[in-house]
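Example 3.2
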Amino acid sequence: MKNTLHGYMTVEAALLMPIVWFSLFFIIFSGFFQYDRCIAEQDGKTAVMRASEIREKDEAKVIRKVMERGDLAGSKKLLFSSAVGKDFHIAKDRVSIKISGRVNTVLNDLVKGMTPGIFTYAAEYGTEQYDPVRFIRMCRRIEKYAGS
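Structure, written as C-alpha cells:
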C-alpha cells in the first residue's frame, strides 16, 4: 500500500486554527463587553430615577443620597471595565447623567500611543424631577376629560 498523504491537512489546520480561536475568544469577550455596558447603563437609569424623586435643591446632597442608596456600576458588578465615569447634572427641574466606560483588553495596548475606541461605551439619560403637585393636577385633568 502506497502512502499518499502529503501533509496539506496539517498546513491547513495550522492556518485555520488561529482564526477559529481568535473568533471564539472575540465572541466570548463581546458578551462580557455587552454585559458591562448593560450594567453601567442600567445603573445610570436607576440613578437618574432616584435623583428625580429626591426633592432637594442642593446638587451635592442629591448626589450623596443617590450614592448612599447603592453602588453605581461598582467593581463588584463589572467584569472587565476598570472604571466607569459618571457625570451628574441637576438643573432646575431636570436630572441627567452621562456614563462612559472602557473595557480593558489586550487589544487596547496593542499599538503604543494610540488608544482604539473599539471597546468603549457611553450613554446619557435624563428625566424631569418628580413634582407630586403637578402629577396630581395632571391626573385630575385627565379624569375630568375622560368623564369619570
